[in-house]
Amino acid sequence: MDTEAQPTERDRSSRPRGPEQDSEPEGPEGRSRFALPRGIGDWLPGGRITLTVLVCLIFLLLLNAFVVQPFQIPSGSMERGLRIGDRVLVNKLAYRFGADPRRGEVVVFDGTGYFGNADYIKRVVGVGGDHVVCCDRKGRIEVNGRPVDESAFLYPGDSPSTVRFDVVVPDGTLFVLGDHRSASRDSRDHLGSPGGGMVPVDEVIGRAEGVVWPVGHLSRLERPGAYARVPAADGTHG
Fold it and tell me: Residue ranges per domain, the chain?
């Protein structure tokens, strides 16, 4: 009786292949067929170095257009935290997937038609539906009936506001103030203007995450706990 086993499919597949059995030859010099041809940058001055620089520039432009963007602080309206000439990194995706600006966050927005023909950076004090009042008996701003202690970021010597106001923020808009209240033109200065000093959420470019230049000013912009504890207009936690 012949006891020699017949080769199985596993046996066949495990046998070494000869040169004629290679499934797919590699490209020139062992490169994958997905590799860029060597001559792709030959027509550019500088060759591959120039091509690499161009790819990096395109990447940076796309990053700047859709993801993050540096913003230079043009005035002292956000001192003490943000000084003239500081560059902050703005997260342009922060509010692009269903999230909305929250009280206490620092945002950059296009003020055209509302504040002026420029981009501005301010702190969000009220969001849609909020009742914002200045001031209580201790001189503090109240949001939805809760006084807000702004001493952690307010410019030294400034009061929360010398302008009195009592507003309800319309849905889809923001009430914004600068941290250096005595040097900031913000929602208070436009209460009688079209839009009532409110900034449409759609005009927000992004959230300022922190100072990236100069190196000596490196810092992260955190949402103050005083605003995080403010209740929402409907009474839920804000």
Answer: 28-66, 68-228
Of 3.30.70.890, 2.10.109.10, 1.10.10.60, 3.40.50.2000, the CATH number of 68-228 is 2.10.109.10
pLDDT tens digit string along 12-33? 444 444 444 444 444 443 333 3
Interatomic CA distance for residues 184 and 97, integer angstroms = 30
Identify the segments of the chain with pLDDT beneath 50: 1-37, 59-63, 66
Handedness of CA 125, 130, 134, 135 (dihedral sign): negative
92 is catalytic: no
Q: How far apart are CA 123 and CA 55, in angstroms?
A: 36
Bridge partners, residue 70, by sequence:
89
pTM: 0.73
Among the options 77, 161, 184, 187, which is catalytic? 77
Please tell me which residue in 92, 122, 161, 187 is annotated as part of the active site.
122
Residue 122 is among the residues annotated as catalytic for this protein: yes
